[in-house]
Amino acid sequence: MTYEQITYESRDRVATITLSRPDKLNAWTQKMDEEVGTAIRAAAADDSVRVIILTGAGKGFCAGADMTLLSAISQESQPRAGRFLVDNEVNGDAHPDFRRKHAWLLSVPKPIIAAINGPAVGLGFIIPLYCDFRFASEKARFSVIFSKRGLVAEYGLAWILPRIVGTGNAIELMFTSKMVDAAEALRMGLVTRVLPEENFLPAVQEVAREMAANVSPRSLQVMKRQIYTGLLKNLGEAYDEALEEMRGSFGTEDFKEGVAHFIEKRAAAFTGR
Q1: Contact, 176 vs 128, CB < 8 A?
Q2: Minimal CA–CA distance to 205: which of 6, 16, 50, 8?
Q3: Range 6-212 classified under CATH 3.90.226.10
Q4: Tens-digit pLDDT profile for residues 141-186
Q5: Which residues contact residue 107 at a Cβ distance below 8 angstroms, ignoring those fewer than 6 apart?
Q6: For 117-123, what is the mean pLDDT?
Q7: Are the C-beta atoms of residues 24 and 65 closer than 8 Å to each other?
């Protein structure tokens, strides 16, 4: 498929999706939203892809919603924002909470790594929160920004951010809209790793390739669902679900392979079945 505002590359079981409006610091548009959704769905449906990376071209990850769109909304007598607020269509048995705009990334059955190569602001701050990993370049910068735009905690931000960085850090980030650097983001748990700017994306891709080669894709799919739906359950419900999933895993090819490659002291050859 041909894309206008992103690029898509698949290699070594890793799909890399790059926001590609570098002259605008990859500011988010409706077109970009549609193309990212299409690309992630394509990667999710492709059996040759086991890990997905989302990153930005040039010096930024994403500067947030394109200001021309926000300006147009601000001039409407009855602001509606059009499709900008419409939920995504999600196939399968995803939990209703994870069918919502941007939160739908939690329902994607493969790991998603946000490779944050530069500023991640506003909507560009929120989208990585719905990815499974957040790796930051040492040049990355982060700001919620909404309180400085007369806006609010958008797209479930007030639910997910405290779960990642804690309530106190979330309040400070949201109320002040301050800019934090990669080191501060790592300290508060906003990102998983900080990597050197030089060769940043290749380093992230290497992590993704190792994961794609060495762990069961079926295990990752089930565990991802357990983690995020578990946030909506009590311990007893999560425990019961785990028992059912354990019983189901014992009859799979990946379980048999997981035991066999360890005993035979060889590289794993997981099929995802």
Answers
A1: no
A2: 16
A3: yes
A4: 999 999 988 899 999 999 999 999 999 999 999 999 999 999 999 9
A5: 90, 92, 94, 95, 98, 99, 228
A6: 97
A7: no
Element housing 254 (H / E): helix 253-263
Q: Which of 124, 151, 131 is nearest to 64 (CA)?
A: 124
Rounded Cα–Cα distance for residues 4 and 144 (Å): 27
| pLDDT tens profile 198-223 | 999 999 999 999 999 999 999 999 99
Domain coordinates of the chain in residue numbers?
A: 6-212, 215-263
Residue 210 token pair: 């190792």
Query: Within 10 A of 84 (CB to CB), how many other CB atoms are there?
Result: 16
Kindly state the tokens that stand for 90: 């999600």
Rounded CA gap, 102 and 246, in Å? 30
Answer yes or no: are the C-beta atoms of 161 and 174 closer than 8 Å. Answer: yes
**Tens digits of residue pLDDT in 59-90:** 999 999 987 766 666 555 555 555 555 555 55
Question: What DSSP element (H or E) covers 246?
Answer: helix 235-249
Please, are residues 147 and 174 in contact by the beta-carbon 8 Å criterion? yes
Assigned token pair, 256: 């048999």
